[in-house]
Amino acid sequence: MSDLQTRPEAVACGGRDDVSGGPVRELLKPKTVPLGETTEVRRLLPTLGRRMVGAWCFVDNYGPDDIAGEPGMQIPPHPHMGLQTVSWLHAGEVLHRDSLGSVQTVRPRQLGLMTSGRAISHSEESPREHGPTLHGAQLWVALPDAARHTDPSWEFHADLPVVTGPGLTATVLLGELDGAASPGRAFTPIVGADLGIADGADVRVPLEPDFEYAVLTMAGRTVVDGVPLDPGAMLYLGCGRRELPVRADGGGSLMLLGGEPFEERLVMWWNFVGRSGDEIARARADWMDGDRFGTVQGYDGGRTPAPALPGLPLKARGRTR
C-alpha cells in the first residue's frame, strides 16, 4: 500500500532512547487519510508522539467499507525501498501485482508479504468481480541495515498457524506467538497476530517482556488491560509484560503488533525507508527517471508520481517528537 499524500511529512524514527522499559497505556489518535479515489484509511503509525512499535513503522486500518457496485481499492503502481509490506484482510479481496511479475489475489486471513529490499514497485486493487465489503489493515515493517539492500521478493501464505485457548483464537501472520511461528520471512524479532475473542471471554495473551507492543481493534468493543477500545483504535502498551488481559463483550477482534525496539535510526518519507536524506532523494529521482524499481504489468492506469521533497533536510532522529 502506498502513502498517497501529495505533501508527505518526513518521519524520523528508530532508536531506543524513548522506549519505556515498563508497561504503558497510550491511546494513539488516528489520522484520516485518502487512499486513491474511493478509499479512506485511519493512519495509526506513524503518528504524533509514536513512530514505531518494534520494527512496525506504518499501520493503516480501513473499513468496513461498502463497495458493492463501486471500484473499491485502486492504488496505482508505486515504489518501495527498505521495508516489508504486510497485507491483512478481514473482508474483501485485494489483487497484488509487482515488478517481479507476481500476480496474486489476497483474501481474508491470508498473508501477502512483500519484501522491497533495495527496490520494488507494486499496485493493489479490488478485483473487477469483488465482494460487497472491504475491511483490513496494511502495515510496513522496517528492514534492518543488514537486510535492507536484499533482493526484493513476494510471499503468499494461505495457511497460517493458529493458537487456541479458552475464548481465544490467534492467527500468527508474522513472527512467533506462544510457540507458533509464521512461515513469513522476518528480519528482526517481531510478532504480528490476529486475535479473535469470543463473546464474554476474558483471556490472557502470552507476551515477551523484551518486546514492545500495541494492539489495533479491528471489530467489536474490547477492553485491553483495563482500557476500553472501539474499532479502529490503537493502544500502545510499551515493554515489560509477560501477558496481556483482554476482554470482549459480544466478541471482538484485534491485531497484536510487537517486537524488540528497533535500535537503528531511520528516515521514512513517502514510500521509502532509508538512513539519510540523500538516500531518500536518490530513490525519488530513480523512481521518477524510471530506474531501479522496475515496471508493474497489467494495471489499467498510469503509475504514481513522487511528490516533491520537503524544503528542509531529512534527518534521522528518534522514535518520538
TrEMBL record:
Residues 194-292 form the Pirin C-terminal domain. Residues 1-24, 298-321 are annotated as: Disordered. SUPFAM superfamilies: RmlC-like cupins (SSF51182). Residues 302-315 have a biased composition (Low complexity). Residues 40-141 form the Pirin N-terminal domain. Transmembrane segments: none annotated. It holds the Pfam family Pirin. Belongs to the pirin family. PANTHER family: PIRIN, PIRIN-RELATED. This is Pirin family protein. It comes from Actinomadura gamaensis. The lineage of its organism: Bacteria, Bacillati, Actinomycetota, Actinomycetes, Streptosporangiales.
